[in-house]
Task: structure prediction
Amino acid sequence: MTTTDVTTTPGRERSAEELKALVEDAQRRFGERDADPDEVLAWAAETFGKKLAVACSMASDTVVPALVSTHLKGVDVLFLETGYHFPETLQTRDEFARDWPVNVRTLLPELTVPEQDEKYGAKLHDRDPGLCCGMRKVAPLDRALAGYEAWVTGLRREETPHRANAAPVEWDEHHQMVKINAIVDWTFDHVVAYAEENLVVVNPLLSQGYPSIGCAPCTRKVAPGEDPRAGRWSGVGKTECGIHL
Result:
């Protein structure tokens, strides 16, 4: 479906305590490892319906909203338009929105890139990547997620040490909502295989030396043998934008 900017969200009906109880029930049902993504997402679709959103960076994680859409057509897919994306990332977003029964909703930061440059100086991403990510990624997502009860991510354990203990369903303390990591056990090769078998468009940069893709100024190619996320914020000791911290 056509991409749209976020103007309205479904809103929450359940309290935090009710949502926490759902997490506890799901953890008993699915455990901490080797949960079947389809079973997890079928539960999520039935439990939350339109109050479920999917976050997608339009890299390899397009497989996640594709999976969700088999259980919940028209699901909201949240895409962070930072103003710094590779053209290939925006192309992937538009092709995915065209080919799958989802509603891709583009999240915008409060400041445009020129406005940010005027206020903080040019190339803030080089001088203070944490502040830049906070304004252009974390804050817009925080605002959007406040209108949902649960969100689905493409987070996988193998990506970083910080993600190694992620569960298929967990409580998101920061957002006070349910967080669903349906493909948390998958490897990168598993993701690619699923995309190929199910004709899910993925970012073409993945096959050009970019196994992990973020904003263009903060992403470089990865050399053979390097950690797949070595190309993100290279040289500044940063491995996460802040969304999953």
Observations:
- The domain at 4-204 is CATH 3.40.50.620 (Rossmann fold).
- The chain has a mean pLDDT of 92.
- The longest strand covers residues 75-80.
- The first helix runs from residue 16 to 30.
